Amino acid sequence: MKQLLLGLSTLIGMIIGGGIFALPYTFFKAGFLPSVFLLILITFSLCLLHLFYLEIIQKEEKPHRFVGYIEETLGKKFKILASIFLLGSFWISLLIYLILGANFLSALLKIDFHLAFFIFFFLGNLLIWLGLKEISLVQLFGSFFLAFILLFLFFNALPKIDFSFLSFKKISFSSLFLPYGALLFSLYGRAAIPEVTSLISSAKKQKLVVILGTILPAILYLCFIITILGTSKEVFPFPEKNLSQVFGEKTLFLFNLFGFFSIFTSYLVIGLNLKETFVLD
């Protein structure tokens, strides 16, 4: 049971990241109903993609990361191309998460941005250096905390929710695919799959965790989107304003805390995956 929870929280912690903040605005612009269809479609597609990657990992005898598996199946030339693309995207992602995480930490602790940047960088890289065991424990706490906040906001907002956003009149055909990129980014958790296999020995449990770990964030995202759309006449690109209008200024502390943990948990898994890529491949 412990293995199952650690694996599940690692995948959920990786998936729930900065992308969640863009979802309410994109759903508002495109219309809720077609956006939900996109959410279901992308969740199903990425669930399959995560399972395909899991199957590759399970069949290979030697442990690798994505770049290593590409070399095993497609050869060295493709490994070089994949390395340039993947390592570049990892570095960019880590930099973005550092800046976002420092912003949330700065607002949370009322400290200078540069100091918050250093604290985030130091704590994150210390845990990455310590390894998967320590990171999985942080992920366990962080994932349950993220889920608790999203559900807390949803159930508190439920009596105030106006379901008029479900109307077909709210659909904008010119912005129909606006949520696509945000959803794809928000639900992509490939980097956490090798860590799941390291934490869980049973192949059946690995498969179960990958399925649940992809679907549960989608359900939590939907709760968050309904909370914002159902309580706001106008949705802002960053949901901080909407939450403060509905729940008051006290919610900003909760929002910044949620923001910090959502960024920090993703940063840890991406950083660990990058480290393991250099070590193994």
Order of helices and strands: HHHHHHHHHHHH
**N-to-C span:** 31 Å
Q: Count the helices. How many?
A: 12
* Shape designation: globular
Helicity level: over 70%
Beta-strand residue percentage: under 5%
Keywords for this entry:
281 residues; mainly alpha; 12 helices; 78% helix
Report on this model:
- The chain is mostly helical and 281 residues long.
- It is 78% helix and 0% strand.
- It has 12 helices and no strands.
- Helix 1 (2-15) runs antiparallel to helix 9 and helix 4 (66-74) packs antiparallel against helix 5 (76-109).
- The longest helix has 34 residues, at 76-109.
- The mean pLDDT is 85.
How would you concisely characterize the structure shown here?
This protein has helices at 2-15, 23-30, 32-59, 66-74, 76-109, 113-130, 132-157, 179-187, 193-199, 203-231, 240-247, 251-280. It is an all-alpha fold and 281 residues long. The two termini are 31 Å apart.
List the helices and strands and how they pair.
Layout (H helix, E strand, L loop, with lengths): L1 H14 L7 H8 L1 H28 L6 H9 L1 H34 L3 H18 L1 H26 L21 H9 L5 H7 L3 H29 L8 H8 L3 H30 L1
